User: Fold Restriction endonuclease type IV Mrr domain-containing protein from Microbulbifer hydrolyticus.
Amino acid sequence: MLTESTEHLTPLDTLNAAFDAIRTETLENILDTILSKSPYELEKLVVKLLGRMGYGGQIKDSGQVTQASNDGGIDGIIKEDVLGFGRLHIQVKRYARENSVGREDIQGFVGALAVAQSNKGVFITTSRFTSGAKEYARSLNGSTHVVLIDGMELARYMYDYGLGMQVEQVIELKKLDADFWDEMKDA
Assistant:
């Protein structure tokens, strides 16, 4: 039975609301599953995800995960071109959801990028970023560009790019093609 707040919803609105609820629950499950894996497995997952997103293009073995410890602040590298001139460096932090990554961590990553002679980086965490971290990343002078991806964004990318996911069901909705029917003479 419909409640007063949902009585005005069309069947399509109800379907969309149900889809959004299922997607939200799935995103939470993705993040919980990621958090159940080791930090090194997360690093490998992130390199796979960025490859799935198109980074590294058609280059064979374009993504690599660095060694598990003493990695100089770089957890992964993606070669952007065949000769390896362009490189995207990755830092990954597997933190509990209630923790946050601060400005100091982003500054450390920018320092690691400088040592690696790179100006492009992606910093991914399973938690979230402080406002100071976000502001610092935005304020970089353009010689270095750092993209921040928090836990829920990571889960959304996993979902949207289908990494570790299976299609459960496809629902195809159709509506009348007005142009098709308008070409016919009315009775």
Summary: The longest strand covers residues 87-93. Residues 91 and 123 are 5 Å apart (CA to CA). The radius of gyration is 22 Å.
